[in-house]
Amino acid sequence: MPHLKIYDLFISHAWKYVEEYDSFIALLDAAPYFTYRNYSAPPDKPLFFTGRISKGVLAGKLANKIRPVNAFIMLSGMYYNYHEWMQVELDIAKKYNKPIIAVAPWGSQKMPSDIYTIADVRVRWNTDSIISAIRDYSI
């Protein structure tokens, strides 16, 4: 069997919606013949702990996470409630010319128009279409 490419991914998310994020990770983990590294900040290793952090410092930490990845994945169901920080992540992804894969919320065909416009590809919550987009658009 040929060696499989390992895809380095940043998955934009908000911890208030941890179930959606966890479901997405489970979907990737279950995909056959697909290997990836998750550059997102997991809940047990946040980019900052309790207390306040400046926007500039947090943006720098996000840039360090996004810079090395092959693709940026936006779970678009969280965008309206977390527009400010998710927009910062999108701006960083664009700055580093990362392909943006927008995933519509599970069970929905719609996504925010801002994301629809900026994304390189838009997919539904479906394993085959998500994995195909990652393989086709990753750098």
UniProtKB/TrEMBL annotation:
Coiled coil: none annotated. InterPro entries: ThsB__TIR-like_domain, ThsB_TIR-like_sf. This is Thoeris protein ThsB TIR-like domain-containing protein. The lineage of its organism: Bacteria, Bacillati, Bacillota, Negativicutes, Selenomonadales. It comes from the Bacteria. Residues 10-109 form the Thoeris protein ThsB TIR-like domain. SUPFAM superfamilies: Hypothetical protein MTH538.
